[in-house]
Amino acid sequence: MVRTYLEGWKFSVLPKGFWDIQKNRRDFFDWLGKQVGVHRLEDWYKIDIQQVWERGGYSLSKYYCGSLPHALKNIYADFPTKSVFWKYVKEVDKDY
After folding, report:
1. Phi-psi label, residue 56: left if phi above 0, alpha if psi -120 to 50, beta otherwise
2. What is the radius of gyration, based on Cα positions, of the chain?
């Protein structure tokens, strides 16, 4: 049986099935949000998948086929997925 581990994603090798546990996925995104300055769900629009990878979430991103919006909608049921807005924010960020 795989159990949850506090910030287990910081280890180079995770136990098999680690990301299968919803609490581990939620704990990671809660932790990541604090690391990157997310205060409201809409703040996630400013985060890209590269930032997830850089902070230990590469294998977790594969769990969601590399889709950050899909992951966030699964983790936070009330996450407002507005793909048009997500794309707009990314294009604006590229200009700066």
Report:
1. left
2. 14
SS3 14: coil
- CA distances to 2, 7, 11, 53, 92 from 18, rounded to whole Å, are 7, 11, 12, 16, 35
Torsion sign over Cα 35, 79, 70, 93: negative
pTM of the model: 0.75
Residue type, 48: D
The amino acid present at 26, given as its one-letter code, is: R
Q: Tens digit of pLDDT for each residue in 66-95?
A: 888 889 989 998 887 665 555 544 444 444
Distance (Å, whole) CA 2 – CA 32: 22
| Nearest alpha-carbon partner for 26 in 8, 42, 40, 49 | 8
Token pair for residue 70?
């899909």
Whether the CB-CB separation of 57 and 51 falls below 8 Å is answered with no
